């Protein structure tokens, strides 16, 4: 782990659950790490492999995808598709020798404000342990 490392994490959050849970956490005044840059999406099923890889390429140290509970996606199977895509990205990262744990899928409901804060904390700790993304260094120096 690098000293004073503050991970930059992109959180793709479904507006029906994770984004609403983030709002709830705020209303409940539950604090969570500020390292997560939340991007609201209409459903995690809209997140494609390229979106996750692009976030990493642009400097994110980690990416979390947070969708509705299994069986509760408003578009029926969006969160299952998202999980499959997250797993595909993990395989790609493994093949290029990056830590697959930099990308994580979570499921929660809009009523889970405290859980949202927990997953943000979990993600921030996980990525802090992994350290800065090697892709960030490549981007900054142009070195391969
Ligand atoms: Fe929330 Fe699909 S509507 S994951």
Key attributes of the depicted protein:
144 residues, alpha/beta, Rossmann fold, 5 helices, 4 strands, binds FE2/S2 (inorganic) cluster
Describe the protein.
The protein is of the alpha/beta class. The chain has a single domain (9-137), classed as Rossmann fold. The protein contains five helices and four strands; from the N terminus they run βαβαβαβαα. The chain has a four-stranded parallel beta sheet with strand order 2-1-3-4, sandwiched between helices. The longest helix has 18 residues, at 78-95. 41% of the residues are buried. It binds FE2/S2 (inorganic) cluster.
Give a quick rundown of the structure.
The protein is α/β, with parallel strands linked by helices and 144 residues long.
Tell me the domain tally. 1
Q: State the end-to-end distance.
A: 21 Å
CATH class: Alpha Beta
Using the coordinates shown, work out and report the CATH topology.
Rossmann fold
What's the structural blueprint in terms of helices and strands?
Elements: E1 9-14, H1 18-27, E2 36-41, H2 49-57, E3 62-67, H3 78-95, E4 103-107, H4 113-130, H5 134-141
Parallel strand pairs: 1-2, 1-3, 3-4
Helix pairs in contact: 1-4
The structure holds FE2/S2 (inorganic) cluster.
FE2/S2 (inorganic) cluster (FES) is lined by residues 14, 16-17, 43-45, 67-68, 73-75, 78-79.
